[in-house]
Amino acid sequence: MQKEVKLEVKNLYKIFGPHPKKAMKLLDEGHDKDAIFEKTETTVGVQEASFEIYKGEIFVIMGLSGSGKSTMVRMLNRLIEPTAGEVLIDGEDIVSMNDDELVKLRRAKLSMVFQSFALMPHLTVLQNAAFGLEMDGVDKAAREKRALEALAQVGLDAWANSSPSELSGGMQQRVGLARGLAVDPDILLMDEAFSALDPLIRTEMQDELLKLQAKAKRTIVFISHDLDEAMRIGDRIAIMEGGRVVQVGTPEEILQNPADEYVRAFFRGVDPTNILTAGDIASDAQVTIRITDGKNPRAALQRLIKYDREYGYVLDSDDKFQGIVSTESLRELIDSSPGEHLIKDAFIKDAETCQASDSMQEILPNVAGHPWALPILDDQGNYAGAISKNLFLRTLHRSQADAEQDQEPETAPQETVEPTTDGVQSS
Amino acid sequence: MNFLSFEKKLIPLDEWVQEFVNWLVLNHRDIFQAIKAPIELCLEGFEWLFTSLHPVVIIVLFAYAAWRFVGKKTTVFTIVTLLLIGYLGLWEETMITLAMVISSVFFCAIAGIPLGIMSGRSDRFELFLRPALDAMQTIPPFVYLVPVVMLFSIGTVSGILATIVFALPPIVRLTSLGIRQVHPELIEAALAFGATPWQVLRKVQFPLALPSIMAGLNQTLMMALSMVVIAALIGAGGLGNPVVQGLNTLEIGLATIGGLAIVLLAMVLDRITQGFAKR
Fold first, then answer.
1. pTM more than 0.80
2. Predicted ipTM?
């Protein structure tokens, strides 16, 4: 799949303090952050950061406080001047822009939502939502119309003439979001936008954001220190530590292959059943039976017996999933009457399927509820593998083993190896 | 040579200053006359306005302002106070003082608010301005009365100039404070949405600093009123006159009613401007 790069960060540095040049030189020589601070009283905010953000994705930059994530997002619209490196938006380097070009770029392509909401206390909710358009010189009637539409999107159009101080925190941040949306930006920067809200409201706002994102795909850069939040809303996540970007990837990739101990520690305690999907763990170790005419239950039975399996997964010639048969159901069918039989008459009645995008959490009842492995289908309805109870438990165990590696550095390798040989697995 | 003997004056600063001011007066009188002109114009305008309007009109205007910006109690207080001033026989002087004070505050605002905004937005500018403001607030007015008189001659305009020097610092300081108190995230937000520095000032910093600027104006007004008596020493008219006269001729009664009228006028102006600032 070819993805369009919307925003690219190339070798970006930010150094705070009196001697940025000296600090850059020391960095080149391989000194670390603390040594540089000791020598020059200069703080390295962000170093050697490079990543790409694709059009239409939610890209979460995650790290603890002091990891440089807030500095990073402010360099994307140059609220903070980078010390070195490039930030390319649609291929254009914004670091080399002059003040006029920068103002134009901010008006045309960027908007931002702040942790502390940063609403103007002297303006009404509507005027706040229209703020970006006002800066751009849009006339009053037009900007208020668009601001009202943006407020309607976040469900606050009835509050247009209130003062922000009359609103609760969650509502204030909806206004902040509406202000960001009203200018119809290419890129929405969200700096810990939901961190100041209480957990219930935070989840609600995350849902709201995902809902808005489902309607109109925007490129969103979301800063967070909250892993659950990052996992929940991020298409891809960049993890920052001490000013460096230590890993970039989808939540599943990072969870399954943490780049280093820091990332691993970050993910300790994360419940993998919420993040890993059925498609991530489904295995093709089950016996599949292809039917062309569907008239050979005997051959199917032979195949199951050959591989010493009780259940078989019946597909048509296009890989479309048809049903599950068992040795028992096939025998019953063959014994019931002489003559020709159709395999589909041997399908187990209450066999259910799950989508590859379902989380482990969601498929758990189905995995647990039946003796056979749960068949998993991709979005086209094609068979993508199956998940047995064993496989499910092994996945859980492996995540746990990952988390406990501090105590047991020598985890047995066979525990982490996925069984691939056909016929080894039993249900 | 004994450096620790203070019997002989080594640095004749007083003579230097004397010579410098004399030189200014002789060679650059035109500059000072040019400075004087707009102040004179402004003062004469207000004076003409307040003295030609019938006292009832003025009382009604004040009462309306008090009712509009503050409340019933203050309205009654304002009417009673102004009537009392009239019955004390000080109406004319009060109007002259009012014109002087308003002219002073007007020029303080014109100079002070931009200075305050600049020092609110630039640390370097504030660093440079602060000692000047400190000096203006601490030098006793009597010290600069003499050069002011030498440069601008005796009269109400000189009184206003001395008043401006004395009353300018609070409006500058409170404007600067108001600008600095605007939360940095609001500035960031404005910039993030593509505001130019001018838009940041006009749409965010200035409106949010307005209450503080208003408080500064109120302080400046009060300080201008407190200069009325000193200004009278260099020939400014108004309510300072009966006080100075009473002082010179030991007419304690005259000095008392002059002082009383200043205090009453100050209270009325303070209540009304505070009420206005709160809105």
1. no
2. 0.80
